Amino acid sequence: MARHRNIRTMAYEEDLDDYTSDDYGSSLDNGCVTPETENMYTYARERHESVSKIWEPQQPPVQEEDEQEPGEMFEMDDVKDTGQGATGDSEKLSKCLKSMRSVIGNSVAEGTLREAAISQNFDPDRALDVVFDRQGGASKAAAPQANPESQKAQASQSKQTDPNQHNFQTVPPVETPTRITFNGKDPGPKNAKKSKAVATKDPKEPKVELKVESKAVPRKLSPDTPRSTASPKVPRTPRLDPKAIQDLYDKERTSMKPLLNLVVVGHVDAGKSTLMGHLLYLTGNVSKKTMAKYEHESKKQGKASFAYAWVLDETSEERTRGITMDMAYAKVETEHRCINILDAPGHKDFIPNMITGAAQADVAILVVDATRGEFETGFELGGQTREHTMLVRSLGVAQLSVAVNKLDTCQWSEERFNEIISALKPFLKQTGFVESMVSFVPCSGLTGVNLHERSQLPQLTKWYKGPCLLETIDKMEPPPRPITKPLRMCVADVFKGMQSGVSVGGKIESGCMSQGDKFIIMPSQEPCVVKSLLIDNLPHNRAFAGDNVIVNLDKCEPSQICFGSVICDANEPIRAVSKFEAKVVIFNIDIPVIKGSPVVLHFQSLSEQACFGRLLKELNRNTGEVVREKPRYLSKNSSGVVVIKVARPICVERYQDSKELGRITLRQSGNTIAAGVVTALL
């Protein structure tokens, strides 16, 4: 209130004395606006009307009765009483006439429109049908058999006769969308709400045929209905014949060593990075100069034992903390294989990163710490040895080599080695690994014993006669590559490269990709063109299933590409669904799974919020037989068929159609609770 009192008592004359004309700009007095230019800034109604007449189309003379507003040119005696009174009928008739006028303009007399509206109970659609039948019934019936050339001539003649014929009027939206065509030609877009009609006013010019094409009202789709799988404007590259693709693969890859994607997993501090870094150094993939540099820098930080780990742990944070935080990539060649090494983080906080790497792997190495107490911590007391093993198996890895690391701390004890094997074998069999696909190798990552060549230590050779770690990797068989199937490439990384466009990284799961091919990115349905291909940072013209590539894409919107997107063949795109049916195995959990239980779904490089839908069946974990229909819950170490609902549509395929794109992993509160395969898309 005090502020308002000050305003009321303010001396405005004193305040205004301090202002000059300069504070308010120039005026007529200081010569800025002269009497000659004053008229330019003065509103004149006559001048405004004369200018507006230039832009107004010349209307033909109309009768006096047409000068009145539609809806006012009728007498109440002509309106039938519908039980709502004369006032209600007049409003209906007025609305009906306005709707009819918006379609056909002033080409039809008011009386005809009024009569048609009253006869059809003020329904504008049926009234217009009556008017069209009366005005051009005969020409409408003969329109489909008319000569197209004569129609073009008639249309051009009508355009020359009346210059105002192009003034279309927009049809208002009605319950049944319609498209009005002019002499069999659509004057505008196919969208019914934007369709246009021609209004003719000169009685001497040829009759204009109005043809109404009714379209069915589109059915509303439920939120769970999958989106359309392809856009009609997506560029498409014809897919090669499967035999031609196989011939290309044999021609380009026969002379090369088979490719093998190897992921290294295990509990934190088991020595994964040190083991693989030392193996890379011993095989000549890391120079002595670089290794000396790492040894010197690690000693300065008091971490001399981490020198070999720095070969793969390149970031300053990883070196400071002494743990791997993100996936590290390296390459090594054996006698018969070309190996892509993927070093996964072991800490439980970075398991999502480990899943991303394991999804790209064909085979795996499980590193365990043989030190007494350390193995038990990682395997039995909630460590990551169990979880990593279950994850790699659920992601399709069937061949596993167990590297019993740091056995030198136990003086190469055979008893300790057999103790670890006896604890792991039953668990691996229960997880789904076949015994013939699993091997155990004693080694030491820090000293390099039994890594690239067989050890000569008497303590080890007196009881171990098997191969070294590199020989074990060399014996692993690459899985069959689905190169003849439609292209599927899951995006694991998106970045801006040196070239124009956007670069994406990932593994080609099926099919092949060539430079210049046109594909579609799902689920955003974004078209793209392959500008260039990089394999191991070297340019290639073509890539096949199994290759980890970096693709530079052109003619696409980068914002439409994200982790989990799938680059696929536009002729056979992958489906995007928000719910699907899956056969899952429940791990060792404390709380049973019920309908609505929230989880985080991991699929390839994608993690998405999800929940359990209906629980359809409970299965016997060993035989697969149905134990119970529609169970209320699924307890630990059980198996069942469930419906998974995802927050946003994701691109998956049935396991029987694509093993690579049909596996899922479910986590909850930082723990992996289930894994399974997709059985149906809903």
Quick gist of this model?
The protein has 682 residues and is α+β, with helices and mostly antiparallel strands.
Characterization of this structure:
This protein is an alpha+beta fold. The chain folds into 4 domains: 70-214, no CATH class; 261-283 and 325-474, 3-Layer(aba) Sandwich (Rossmann fold); 485-568, Translation factors (Elongation Factor Tu (Ef-tu), domain 3), CATH 2.40.30.10; 576-681, Translation factors (Elongation Factor Tu (Ef-tu), domain 3, Beta Barrel), CATH 2.40.30. It has 18 helices and 26 strands. It has a 6-stranded mixed β-sheet, sandwiched between helices. Strands 11-12-18-15-14-19 form a 6-stranded antiparallel barrel. α6 packs across α7 (124-142). The two termini are 66 Å apart. This is HBS1-like protein. One of its GO terms (cellular component) is cytoplasm. One of its GO terms (biological process) is translation. Residues 150-160 have a biased composition (Low complexity).
Biggest sheet: strand arrangement: 6-7-5-8-9-10
Tell me the count of domains. Answer: 4
Question: Total number of helical segments?
Answer: 18
Low-confidence stretches: 1-9, 12-38, 41-85, 137-232
Largest sheet: 6 strands, mixed
Q: Report how far apart the termini are.
A: 66 Å
Query: Which architecture of the largest domain per CATH?
Result: 3-Layer(aba) Sandwich
What is the averaged pLDDT score?
76
Radius of gyration based on Cα positions = 39 Å
Helix content: 25-40%
Highest-level CATH class of the largest domain: Alpha Beta
Strand content: 15-25%
CATH topology of the largest domain: Rossmann fold
Structural class of the secondary structure composition? alpha+beta
**The CATH superfamily title of the largest domain:** P-loop containing nucleotide triphosphate hydrolases
| Principal-axis shape | elongated
Total beta-strand segments:
26
